[in-house]
Known about the structure:
The chain is mainly alpha-helical. The chain has one domain. It contains five helices and no strands. Helix 3 (35-44) packs across helix 5. The longest helix is centred in the C-terminal third of the chain and has 12 residues, at 66-77.
Amino acid sequence: IINKxxxxxxxxxxxxxxxxxxxxxxxxxxxxxxxxxxxxxxKLYQLNELNRNQFDIFRKRYSPYGTxxxxxxxxxxxxxx
Length: 81
């Protein structure tokens, strides 16, 4: 889905990932392209920086419930939790 939709002008990976979460209800989406999710991981694990390799380790840890983790990470990033 990501490969097909990002061929459309103006549609990027982040846009498709949000479509997967909020419209198609996919259960395992954790977007590296989302600043809030990265910020949530950094706050939760008290990290000063987060590279792609570290992020992928967390994404695998959250699987198969990545979307649920994403929702909580957004809350953590917004300091609601």
